[in-house]
Amino acid sequence: MPKPSLPQGTRDFSAETIRKRNFIFSNIRKVFELYGFEPLETPAMENLETLTGKYGEEGDKLIFKILNNGLNNEKNIEKARIGFEKVLTGKSSPDITERALKYDLTIPFARYVAMNHTKLIFPFRRYQLQPVWRADRPQKGRYREFTQCDADVVGSISLMNEVELAHIYHEVFQLLGLSNYELRINSRKILAALAEACGGTDKLTDITIAIDKLDKIGIEKVKEELQQRGLNDKQISTIETYLNITGSSEEKIIQVRNLLNQSAELDAGTSDLEFVIGHTQNLNMVIDFTLARGLNYYTGTIFEAKAPPSVQMGSIGGGGRYDDLTGLFEVAGIPGVGISFGVDRIYDVMEELKLFPEDLNIGTKALFFNMGKAEAEFAFTAMQELRRQGIAAELYHEETKIAKQFQYAEKKHIPFVVIIGSKEMADNNCCVKNLATGNQEILSFDQLPAFFNKH
RNA sequence: GUAGCCAUAGCUCAGUUGGUUAGAGCAUCAGAUUGUGAUUCUGAGGGUCGUGGGUUCGAGCCCCAUUGGUUACCCCA
Q1: Which of A40, A80, A107, A264 has the most other CB atoms within 10 Å of its CB?
Q2: Per-residue CA distances from A285 to A29, A203, A226 (Å)
Q3: Residue A3 pLDDT > 70, yes or no?
Q4: Cβ of A409 < 7 Å from strand B?
Q5: C-alpha separations of A99 from A52, A70, A321 in Å
Q6: Nucleotide with smallest C1' distance to residue A209 CA
Q7: Among A73, A116, A113, A125, which residue's Cα sits nearest to residue A95?
Q8: CA–C1' A348–B16 (A)
Q9: What is the pLDDT of residues A273-291, one digit of tens each?
Q10: What architecture does CATH give domain A15-353?
């Protein structure tokens, strides 16, 4: 029997971790609900066909594919062999795999909308908190199984949706204590206008991939990469000027208008940003023209939430507007915009900054000591009454020395112990001790619920 | 997929140019006090040094392979 282990990049979650994660989830859910979003869940797996081609070439490689069952069945064996040959050339074959674990929540959502568009009430606002899987090499802040929390509005082109989503980011991060997060915003339309000015729209991807790395590799390396991607000096010079745009959001918009030739794309992109900026005061939002985002279905506004600069953790959330996501599934004309929170990274950031409230790990409120057979039975009755009142309590499972029972309570972060010995039994009361302060008092049993509700 | 680093007790680690029965702290358990807890005292258990080969009189240490972890690239939450 080999040592038990977990698949790479996956984790077990202990009680303490789950309570902290639930703290994040419940705040996100609360804000989503407050903004009128409705919950949705989709399966862990999708048909592979639903997912491939939606995340770009690199994305396709990171989809976890599920091997078909019954490949060794005689009537399948020949097909499987041919299919496998195909797989070896780097392609996928439905004879080998036709299902995959979901890679994000947006594409399955688009599939859901496409399947149900006749029944849904538009604009349709849904939120979704579920795990997703990526066959990526794990490293800091990167897992193979992680949880996304998405909110999307589909069936509306109103920029008020962007405004609301920006507010959602802000409210959630405030609730979590991440007040110095940064929300970067840009528009794919402006990037398209830049591409137009630099060799045409077919250069859009090359340009965005390169400039997205500015933070990491610096301007010189970006210029090198642009050169390798076939841009000439004049085009690179335009991009450099573009990347050097600084100032307030308003100033940045003016500068980008001056730099790029006037076009419908540019006008649309800049006025989109102006609208969103104009309706979101004091939200830690900054225009970042280098923001590009990988997923190629975005067409308008794009968002990226950055962790506070004091921690080494890039993006803790992202999103954007897509004109026609459901078009991928043969249902055209449903535009939308959405955002996502990366819970696992938010968790790591909050842990590093020690932002979790102290009292999250209190499960059991009171431990009843076991002071003997008769005492324990007496305590059990008292405890059951507390439980009926909604107060979590435990009775120490066996009679043992006091020190050990105290230690158990301490280790489990139980804040109070209730001692019922022969004396208390005789007086029909109990001794309640606060472990944090060391204070203890004698209470009658009918005082207990009120006491614990107060503390 | 590519590259670097790491692997010794439950945890964090030490282990000299290769040399006897491989150590420490914390944790665990048991005992001097049978109704009051971190402290102190005494003692105990626990490792075929990730795995498999090789070099050597001799390997935790050197070489090769392999597995796992980790960090970075690509990409991303």
Answers
A1: A107
A2: 22, 28, 28
A3: no
A4: yes
A5: 11, 14, 27
A6: B75
A7: A73
A8: 40
A9: 999 999 998 789 999 998 8
A10: 2-Layer Sandwich (3.30)
Residue at shortest CA–C1' distance from B69: A8
Amino acid A383 CA to nucleotide B26 C1' distance, rounded Å: 35
- Sketch the domain layout of chain A as residue ranges: 15-353, 362-454
**CATH 3.20.20.20 for the A362-454 domain, yes or no:** no
| Contacts (Cβ under 8 Å, ≥6 apart) of A294 | A55, A56, A58, A59, A212
pLDDT at A1: 46
Answer yes or no: is A406 CB < 7 A from strand B: yes
Counting residues of chain A whose pLDDT is more than 90, the rounded percentage is 53
Round to whole Å and give the CA distance between A376 and A398: 9
Burial, A222: exposed, middle or buried (Cβ in 10 Å; 0-12, 13-18, 19+)?
A: buried
The whole-number average pLDDT for the span A373-397 is 93
Fold equal for A15-353 and A362-454? no
Residue with tokens 């859901």: A112
Contact A343, A148 (CB under 8 A): yes
- Predicted TM-score (pTM) of this structure: 0.90
DSSP SS3 for A189? helix
